[in-house]
Amino acid sequence: MRYAPPGLCLNDFALLSEGGVHTLLHLQGPWTEEFDATRMETSYGRATSTDLVRWEPQGGAFGVGLPGGFDDAAVWTMHPFPHEGGLTMYYTGVRTAVPGGWPIQSVGLARSARRDGTGWRRHGTGPVVEADPRWYRTGEGMAWRDPFVVRDDDGTGWTMVLCASDTSLPQERSGCVGLAVSADLVHWEVRPPLISPGDVDELECPVLERVADGWLLFGCVGATRRVETWRAPRLDGPWERVGPLAPADVYAPRVTTAPDGQRVVLHTTPRRTGLSDSGAPCRGMLAQPKVLAVPADGVPRLEWWSGLDAWLGEPGDGPALHAAGDVEVAGRTEVVLREDAAGPALLVGCAGREIWVTGAGGSRLRETVLDREPGRLRILTVGEYVEVYADGVFVLAAAGYAGRPVAWRAVSGGTARAVRVRPVRLPDPDRGDVSAVWPGPVG
Fold first, then answer.
1. Nearest-CA neighbor of 319 among 406, 245, 258, 393?
2. How far apart are CA 103 and CA 168, in angstroms?
3. Model pTM score
4. Backbone torsion region of residue 206, taken as left when φ is above 0, otherwise alpha when ψ lies between -120 and 50, otherwise beta
5. d(CA 73, CA 63)
6. 3-class DSSP state of 133
7. What angle (nearest 5°) sits at the alpha carbon of residue 129, between those of residues 95 and 285?
């Protein structure tokens, strides 16, 4: 249900699929409050799965380049894909010789004759795509990272999108999706931004997904920590903004095909240092898949994936730290999941179109307002993580470390009723390292 490599945090990632095996390449770094991505993300971890839920760590797969190179300090987000019998991968390289400390970023190319995410060899000693100062910042405040590559609409060339900074806008509003094109995957022509909204600080981890009527573009907005979505009939536009794909703290999405044939989204989710509500937010873990639904109105959303049902036990009334339960909404409804000596320590509430999660002492951890009143909530807890689905759609995510599990109860109009839950079977229940799923209060 949640995965991070033993003893480490997990950040941006990529997915490969071959012969029924899914391979995860991911950024990784130490578990520390003062995390410096310019010197701590020096390698990619690798893990494999046959079901997108249970991940087996396979060690490192790629690392920084030689001293003095464009990628000798850190390697950031990557995009590998099958090509000519093997794999081609574009990745972000960060170099150390940086006046004032700003990370200078460029895009490198590596190839492998294998299809399992190993055996990488760099193409040359320098980057293959760099920011063009005509359109993008190249010094202080620059961004040129997170490459994602797809075939052109006509199938004759390639398009790359990146997280970039529009030089025509103030830095705090300059986040854009950079653009480059190529005929051979080696020589790239940088072009003006594909999208430059003018109201975001950065658009990280762009992803292009082909759909029935054209393309979807996902981009992570740094300031709000959420995924925004655009759509267009062709790669050259026109692009229309259609709003958020998922709630805050859902980051770095990647789309893949699940074993049951559905297109699903996996994403990262943050934790807090010290595994307590008072700890600083930090990089976290990989979350379980969610179905990518694109209804007739073209506005994508994430929904509950039925592949998770195999990891749920028989319904019961007892306390469970890891559980899923369905609640009918009847007026103002509050569902108590955990308690401490003072009362509810983890609670999901719904009143009209508003949904919220509170922690110890009633402190609000997350809240949202829906377009319409829901009839049913599905609540999933995995350790400290809480996800809320409204009529099947993923609408809220939070993390809370207080309290002990109790038998779930829903309170509406002053009347409490028991909520039967299905306990979650964790893929690796015996893991004891810091990156394992939170086991609940100790002592």
1. 406
2. 20
3. 0.96
4. beta
5. 10
6. coil
7. 60
R_g over Cα of the chain: 22
Q: Find the largest Cα–Cα distance for the chain.
A: 69
For the beta carbon of residue 382, count every other beta carbon within 10 angstroms: 22
CB atoms within 10 A of CB 5: 23
351 contacts 370 by C-beta, under 8 angstroms: no
Quote the tokens at residue 239. 């692009």
Structure tokens at 47: 């893990």
* Rounded Cα distance, 206 and 183, in Å: 21
DSSP symbol at 136: B
The strand pairing partners of 97, in sequence order, are none
| Phi, then psi, of 20 in degrees rounded to 5 | 85, 0
Q: How far is CA 74 from the centre of its chain?
A: 20
How far is 329 from 255, CA to CA, in rounded Å? 32
Render pLDDT for 26-60 as a digit per residue (tens, 0 to 9): 999 988 877 788 888 999 999 999 999 999 999 99
Query: Do residues 322 and 335 touch, judged by C-beta distance below 8 A?
Result: no
What is the per-residue pLDDT across 14-23, written as a single tens digit (0 to 9) for each? Answer: 999 999 999 9
Looking at residue 40, the DSSP 8-state letter turns out to be H
- Residue pair 72/97 in contact (Cβ under 8 Å)? The answer is no
pLDDT at 443 over 70: no
- Quick check: 440 pLDDT over 70? yes
Taking residue 306's Cβ as centre, other Cβ atoms within 10 Å add up to 11
Cβ-based neighbours of 414, under 8 Å, separated by 6 or more: none
The burial class, CB within 10 Å (0-12 / 13-18 / 19+), for 69 is: middle
